[in-house]
Amino acid sequence: MNLFAGNLVSFAAEEGPSPVVPHPSEIFVGVIAFGILLFLISRKVVPRFELIFSERTAAIEGGIAKAERAQEDAAKALAQYQAQLANARSEAQTIREEARVQGIAIIEDMRARALEETSRITAAAQASIETERQQAIIQLRNEVGKLATELASKIVGEALDDQVRQTRIIDRFLSDFEKSN
Amino acid sequence: MISQSATPTNPGFVPPGAKDFQFPPIWGDSIYLTKPVILIGLSVVIISSFLLAATRNKAVVPGRLQFAGEGVYTLVRNTLGRDVIGPEYLKFVPLLFSIFCFILVNNIFGIVPLIQFPTMSHIGFPVAVMIFSYVTYHYIGVEKHGLVKYLKDICFMPGIPKPVYLILTPVEILTYFVTRPLTLSLRLFANMFAGHLLLLVFAFGGEYLISSGLIMKVLGVFSFGMAVGLSFFELGIQCLQAYIFTLLSALYIAGALAEGH
Question: What residues of chain A have any CB closer than 8 angstroms to a CB in chain B?
Answer without folding.
Answer: 1, 4-5, 7-8, 11-12, 15-31, 33-38, 40-42, 44-46, 48-52, 55-56, 59
